[in-house]
């Protein structure tokens, strides 16, 4: 079995223990302490800021072609380490080993895609109003970035920020997830081992609020990117606004799933059950509020329940396990409280609703039917393995429900009607809409939300634009 490594900070190309002591890392499947994490103090942060400034000076002058070469090499190194990193990710986060492998492999894809995109950061020439006048728009990297990444996908949430920033020519200080630090560090190590100049990527851990308030306010930092809860996102956006820093905010969601009478029900059930319980439901785009049209309702519920009965919960390192523990005890108590409150609000508990065993953070895959909209789980993001299923009669009713909450990250729909598909593309208030499939979170497509789910995009051409600043240069040739 793989050894779980202790995690150090990376500052100016060197791995070091932090001045702030160490933090325990716990395996959520066993509750056991499996490793230590270095905690940054103020001196570490100052060193990281100085390193990011120096790294930026070098990297912004490195050609896009050479940046892409380093990135491709990092992707190759990461690919060669899948079997080494995946068990580490499972041990610290809980997800089944195959899902951990998928996460590393999709990080490889993201790095490759952004490496190519680095070479396409074109500017443009604007026709001038007079002779001998040239008007150019050039794209420049925005500068050193502070990135805050969460524990649900410790590699994938970090890789989109890192790849886009590095491709654009920015440097970055990553504040990684304290609960799941080693896999995020392994991702960054691939870049270091690929020859990324020192200071371009720096990795710190510690007390999140202390690090964010220090870094965001610091004049070296020119952009902030955060993935996490809406509450924290609003706090950081306020700080960034005060210091006029550019921001990308990828926050919470409460995704609606609209299943119409004319849908391919088998496909809807299979696709959504797989995505719902993937990563134990700890996904910002997880399908959560299922709305099923009247005639399809009974069949959908029966088939969905049957599909959920096949989910095998256990330690992600064990073979055949398809759902691991929740990543931390906070989610476990949140699931218990939300389910209890839902039942008080008329929710019919079809399956699950309770902790499994008394060791590790295991919670049963759960289905709640017809929970009143005033229940807490109908308002707050559950971020766990709970599906809420209700019924609707008309298109308008479905759209009103889809748009009911201040969230607007992902939405799903299942229908054979082109008219309904077109209507939904216009009417659903969401950053991403996936119809008759789960087609979200690819490196080449934009990923981001509207309303309280944040702003800015992490994937696609939009993803790299977030790290580029247009500069207009006009000259008269004399
Ligand atoms: P939380 O709100 O305390 O933290 C969420 C994330 O933000 C964590 O990674 C945390 O380290 C970081 N964070 C917290 N305070 C911070 C600060 N002041 N400065 C910088 N970073 C800070 O909640 P939690 O218990 O860790 O997670 C639960 C909730 O977070 C979930 O309900 C979900 O809404 C949200 N979440 C969303 C995502 C996502 O992919 N969008 C990922 C993880 C968590």
From TrEMBL:
It comes from the Bacteria. One of its GO terms (molecular function) is succinate-semialdehyde dehydrogenase (NADP+) activity. This is Succinate-semialdehyde dehydrogenase/glutarate-semialdehyde dehydrogenase. Belongs to the aldehyde dehydrogenase family. Keywords: Oxidoreductase. It comes from Rhizobium paknamense. Residues 15-473 form the Aldehyde dehydrogenase domain. Its EC number is 1.2.1.16, 1.2.1.20, 1.2.1.79. SUPFAM superfamilies: ALDH-like. It is an enzyme of class 1 (oxidoreductase).
């Amino acid at each position: 079995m793989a050894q779980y490594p202790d995690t150090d900070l990376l500052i100016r190309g060197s791995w070091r223990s932090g001045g702030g002591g160490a933090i325990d890392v716990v395996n959520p499947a066993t509750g056991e302490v499996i490793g230590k994490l270095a905690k940054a103090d103020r001196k570490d942060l100052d060193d990281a800021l100085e390193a990011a400034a120096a790294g930026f000076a070098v990297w912004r002058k490195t050609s896009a072609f050479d940046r892409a070469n380093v990135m491709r090499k990092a992707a190759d190194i990461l690919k060669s380490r899948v079997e080494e990193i995946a068990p580490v990710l499972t041990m610290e986060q809980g997800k089944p080993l195959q899902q951990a492998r998928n996460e590393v492999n999709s990080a490889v894809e993201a790095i490759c895609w952004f490496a190519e995109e680095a070479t396409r950061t074109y500017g443009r020439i604007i026709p001038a109003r007079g002779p001998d006048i040239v008007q150019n728009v050039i794209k420049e990297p925005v500068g050193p970035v502070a990135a805050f990444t969460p524990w649900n996908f410790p590699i994938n949430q970090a890789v989109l920020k890192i790849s886009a920033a590095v491709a654009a020519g920015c440097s970055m200080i990553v504040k990684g997830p304290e609960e799941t630090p080693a896999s995020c560090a392994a991702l960054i190590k691939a870049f270091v081992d690929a020859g990324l100049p020192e200071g371009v990527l720096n990795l710190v851990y510690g007390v999140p609020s202390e690090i964010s308030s220090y870094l965001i306010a610091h004049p070296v930092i020119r952009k902030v990117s955060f993935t996490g809860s809406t509450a924290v996102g609003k706090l950081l956006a306020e700080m960034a606004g005060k210091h006029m820093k550019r921001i990308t905010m990828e926050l919470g969601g409460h995704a609606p799933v609209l299943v119409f009478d004319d849908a391919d029900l088998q496909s809807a059930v299979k696709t959504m059950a797989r995505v719902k319980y993937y990563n134990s439901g700890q996904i910002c785009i997880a399908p959560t509020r299922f709305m099923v049209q009247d005639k399809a309702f009974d069949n959908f519920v029966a088939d969905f329940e049957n599909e959920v009965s096949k989910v095998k919960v256990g330690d992600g390192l064990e073979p055949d396990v398809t759902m691991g523990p929740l990543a931390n005890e906070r989610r476990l108590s949140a699931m218990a409280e939300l389910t209890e409150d839902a039942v008080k609000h008329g929710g019919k508990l079809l399956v699950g609703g309770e902790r499994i065993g008394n060791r590790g953070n295991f919670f049963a895959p759960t289905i709640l039917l017809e929970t009143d909209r005033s229940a807490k789980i109908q308002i707050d993001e559950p971020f766990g393995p709970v599906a809420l299923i209700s019924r609707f009669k008309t298109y308008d009713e479905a759209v009103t429900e889809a748009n009911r909450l201040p969230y607007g990250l992902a939405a799903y729909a299942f229908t054979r009607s082109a008219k309904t598909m077109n209507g939904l593309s216009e009417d659903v208030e969401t950053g991403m809409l996936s119809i008759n499939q789960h087609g979200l979170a690819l490196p080449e497509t934009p990923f981001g939300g509207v309303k309280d789910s944040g702003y800015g995009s992490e994937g696609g051409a939009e993803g790299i634009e977030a790290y580029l600043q247009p500069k207009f240069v006009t000259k008269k040739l004399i």
